[in-house]
Amino acid sequence: MSSTRPILLVEDNPDDETLALRAFGKKKIPNPVVVARDGVDAIDYLLCRGAFSDRDPNVLPAVVLLDLKLPRMDGLEVLRRIRADARTAVLPVVVLTTSGETLDIEQAYRLGANSYIRKPVDFERFLQAVGLLGEYWLDLNQSLEPRAA
């Protein structure tokens, strides 16, 4: 497993954040988890700006788990900016949201989402989804090591 690279969880709902962190723990996913609670913080983290200006730009997340309904900058704009920057263009992005709207799904894929998962409400189903996410994106998937510019 790619345990040295963090998972970037972009989530503004404290309950969903807690649920995700619990699920990562229960599934024994060893990657550190960095939480960004809005879209601006997510982009700042990825591009080493603002509060994250001292972060090592050579260590990008193994995967970004991105909610769509976020304050300050919504998830679709975050995805647009991730794909527009050469440093993050190939970063795996999994949309993990409560929205099942066809338009959201279509826009996410058009903007370059690697996967779109609707958050299950039931903890056991969520635990199963996180386990599958971890197994696939952190263990089985062969991805490029993004390079900082």
UniProtKB/TrEMBL annotation:
Keywords: Phosphoprotein. The modification 4-aspartylphosphate is found at residue 67. Residues 6-134 form the Response regulatory domain. This is Response regulator. It comes from the Bacteria. Coiled coil: none annotated. It holds the Pfam family Response_reg.
